[in-house]
Design a protein that fits this description.
The protein is α+β, with helices and mostly antiparallel strands and 172 residues long. The protein has helices at 89-99, 137-145, 148-154, 160-171; strands at 8-16, 19-33, 40-54, 79-80. 23% of the residues lie in helices and 24% in strands. A four-stranded mixed β-sheet has the order 1-2-3-4. A hairpin with a 6-residue loop joins strand 2 and strand 3 (40-54). The protein starts with 7 loop residues before the first strand and ends with a helix.
């Protein structure tokens, strides 16, 4: 989300015995890059959240915190109210970050970039490179150095002249 971007929030505040229960929905837009083609991506987020802000000097049963120090581990998730106020920024940030996709894409069928030259395959879907296996490269050079008649002889294909000479030898 760009800094200073507007966030629309619908809240419900409920006073309960332990503190204030805040339930709401946040709507915002987020910007990023497609992980496949690196094109800009804009996402609309609609995030639900709920958080309990507890009164600072009482536990969930209305007792003084000093009497309930043995339950401190269970109350680690409670966020205390400070001077009757609470800060929603960390709650909203956590909710929005968890709603963001791990790998945003510009569209589901994004082809991405060519791994050899970086060409965007969405713009040029017929793009390809002739891949030559390095193990066969020596044979490629040999095939290029032979003439067409030699290739035919080496591959087992006989030219017309070869067929006639073989027939003449057989007659003798």
């Amino acid at each position: 989300m760009p800094e200073g971007a507007p966030v629309e929030i619908d809240l419900r505040l409920e006073s309960v015995m332990e503190g204030v229960l805040v339930t709401g929905t946040a709507r915002a837009s987020a910007e990023g890059e497609c992980v496949r083609c690196l094109e800009p991506v804009e996402l609309e987020l609609d995030v639900d959240f709920q958080e309990m802000f507890s009164y600072p000097d009482s536990d969930d049963r209305g007792r003084s915190k000093a009497a309930a120090d043995d339950e401190a581990e269970a109350d680690e998730d409670m966020i205390p109210l400070e001077d009757g106020m609470f800060d929603l920024e960390p709650v909203l940030r956590d909710a929005v970050v968890l709603a963001l996709p791990m790998q945003p894409v510009c569209r589901e069928d994004c082809a991405g970039l060519c791994s050899e030259c970086g060409t965007n395959l969405n713009e040029n879907p017929d793009h390809h490179h002739d891949a030559v296996d390095a193990r066969w490269a020596a044979l490629q050079g040999l095939a290029g150095s032979l003439g067409t008649d030699e290739k035919d002889n080496m591959s087992g294909k006989a030219s017309d002249g070869d067929v006639r000479s073989a027939a003449e030898k057989q007659e003798k």
